[in-house]
Amino acid sequence: MLPVIALIGRPNVGKSTLFNRLTQTRDALVADFPGLTRDRQYGVGRIGPGPYIIVDTGGIGSAPEGIEALMERQVQLAIDEADHLLFLVDARDGCTPEDLDISQRLRRLGKAITLVVNKSDGTDPVQSSAEFHRLGLGDPVSVSSSQGQGVRSLLDQVFERL
Ligand code: GDP
Ligand code: MG
């Protein structure tokens, strides 16, 4: 059985871009507006220590109906079946209240989580990731899903924890 890695995070942080990078495909639709990915999308990746199954999701934190609605059904299903969660945040937006809400919910699950600071291209990764320590998920890993920096190293770290 291949390990299952799920991509979690609020809309527009770059989950689908990372999915495509990890699967070396363009299967996931990437958009510069939020909310395009509505259900789960599966792919097989072989980068670094792979292979692995990667699951793209959409929508967490996008429902306006309060904290209980934060995890839509599809995201919950993806989380349930995952061995490891990649929680993506956006280096350019910084740490948002929604990121804090999501991190609190994720921490309660007791699953292995890696905090991924995406869009770190054009930023100082040390500076831009520092504020995310407050999410209480350990040391953030900086990547650029669109440029590729940090992705190999991210996978090495995930596989060490599987
Ligand atoms: P999702 O909603 O989380 O799936 O986000 P998408 O993958 O659709 O990406 C949202 C937007 O962010 C798109 O315009 C992407 O091109 C852009 N984006 C994604 N990853 C990166 C990155 O590493 N660096 C930069 N500069 N932009 C990115
Ligand atoms: Mg998407």
Description:
The model has no long low-confidence stretch (mean pLDDT 89). The chain has a single domain, classed as P-loop containing nucleotide triphosphate hydrolases (Rossmann fold), CATH 3.40.50.300. Helices cover 29% and strands 19% of the residues. It is globular, with a radius of gyration of 14 Å. It contains five helices and six strands. The longest helix is centred in the middle third of the chain and has 13 residues, at 97-109. Strands 2-3-1-4-5-6 form a six-stranded mixed sheet, sandwiched between helices. The chain has helices spanning 15-23, 73-81, 97-109, 125-130, 151-160, and strands spanning 4-8, 41-45, 52-56, 84-90, 113-118, 141-142. α4 links the parallel β5 and β6 (141-142). With 162 residues, the chain is of the alpha/beta class.
Mean pLDDT across residues: 89
Instruction: Report the β-strand fraction as a percent range.
Output: 15-25%
Largest sheet: 6 strands, mixed
Number of helices: 5
Using DSSP, what is the number of strands? 6
- Name of the CATH superfamily: P-loop containing nucleotide triphosphate hydrolases
CATH architecture: 3-Layer(aba) Sandwich
What is the chains' assembly state? Answer: single chain
- Ligands bound here? guanosine-5'-diphosphate, magnesium ion
Terminal Cα span: 13 Å
Strand order of the largest sheet: 2-3-1-4-5-6
Gyration radius (Cα, Å) is: 14 Å
> Which segments are poorly predicted (pLDDT under 50) over 5 or more consecutive residues?
none
- Helical/strand content category: alpha/beta
